[in-house]
Amino acid sequence: MINRAEYVERRNKLAKKLSKNSVSVVLSGEQKIRSNDTEYPYRQNSDFYYLTGFKEDKAALVFVKKKKKVRVLLFVQKKDKKLELWNGKRLGEIKAKKRILVDEVFSSDLFEEKLKEFLKDKKKVYFDLDSEDARAKSLKKLSKGFRTHESISAIVQRMRLIKSNSEIKLIQKAIDITQEAHHKAMSFKKTGKKEYELQAKIEYIFKSSGAYSDAYTSIVACGNSANTLHYVQNNKPLVENALILIDAGCEYEYYASDITRTIPVTGRFSEAQKELYNMVLDVQYEILRMIKPHAKRSQLQKRSEELLCEGMIRLGILKGKLKKLIKKQEHKKYYPHGIGHWMGIDVHDQAPYKDKIGKEIALKKGMVLTIEPGIYIDKNDKTVPKKYRGIGIRIEDDILVTKNGCKNLSAKIAKTVREIEALGSR
Ligand code: GLY
Ligand code: MN
Ligand code: MN
């Protein structure tokens, strides 16, 4: 759990970064209609949640800053017995003030009216410039004459890069649930079943462990399906002797996990599968060894490309000299994606990889990122030895940068051939 004081601390930290004579608005997420009277499950906007821990919709957090003094205001839906009967209890203005510890709380009905008042003598307005929310649009209109509009989310996302101990605990909890799910997938008897049956086993564990849901749509891709990077159909049979790429992670109390394991349907790797798998695994280990404060993601990317390219030459997948192949980007055909990404409240935490002046952000203690090298060989690729065709492998873990190196938060999830085979069904 994250206590109230931590949210207050985050808001104070943000308030200090804002210009004087400014108004800043962070909006709650919107309810999204699925069809007619039904809605998608509601999830709070990540920045808003980071600053408030408040899960209701139609809310807004506002900072009104004069010189140094900042007033922190919250808009929430007012109590309404009739609507609460249908849609659940609301905290309401009075309780919200005590719970969220802001200076003042208003009913969300007053949003525009109050905003007009706050904006009167101000020079700068911060909000999420990309927001599709109707309130963001009206804010744009209200502040038309202003010289400066700045993205509040860019600032909050930078703050979100460094995780506190309580955030790391929640990420670890999400990973622990995900661990159970992946181990279940390894031990479940899979031959003759469908990808969606395996998906259901995994997601049953997410839900029954109290996770809100998956942190992203699960990929359960058998054989050649794994070569479609965003394969989410999950409707094909699990065929004997194939590998299954499972990219699945739950979200627990608004924190993500993002784990990929590639496992054999029958519980045993063939020799060719082992060769490919161990090549990717060795690359992952080598990249993990590079992670420490001051290292840069671009260095990890470059090294992973070199190592995978070297491995592909060794296995006869690519032919030629390393330097030349890299120069011609030949390896990208089989390793087309990034080595990893920030992770936190969002599975892809949106923080930029560069700072305000375009310089790459170096790793720092408290950052969390994924490391996910992979290799994808289409079943019809005649340039590759036959034994490797139709195989896609990715190995993904969630890594915390520590004072002197890193900690693999998902280290306990079976990963070596031996560990996977030991858990595997026959
Ligand atoms: N699951 C999405 C990703 O690995 O980035
Ligand atoms: Mn990932
Ligand atoms: Mn993933």
Question: Could you explain how this protein is built, in words?
Answer:
- The chain is of the alpha+beta class and 426 residues long.
- It folds into 2 domains: 4-159, Creatinase/prolidase N-terminal domain (Creatine Amidinohydrolase, Chain A, domain 1, 3-Layer(aba) Sandwich), CATH 3.40.350.10; 165-424, Creatine Amidinohydrolase (Alpha-Beta Complex), CATH 3.90.230.10.
- It contains 13 helices and 19 strands.
- A 6-stranded mixed beta sheet has the order 6-5-4-1-7-8, with helices on both faces. Strands 9-12-13 form a 3-stranded antiparallel beta sheet. A 3-stranded antiparallel beta sheet has the order 10-11-14, with helices on one face.
- The longest helix is centred in the middle third of the chain and has 23 residues, at 165-187.
- The radius of gyration is 24 Å and the shape is globular.
- The protein starts with a helix and ends with a helix.
- The model has no long low-confidence stretch (mean pLDDT 96).
- Glycine binds at residues 216, 247, 258, 341, 347, 372, 396.
Summarize the structure.
36% of the residues lie in helices and 18% in strands. It has 426 residues and is an alpha+beta fold. Helix 5 runs parallel beside helix 6 and helix 8 (165-187) runs antiparallel to helix 9.
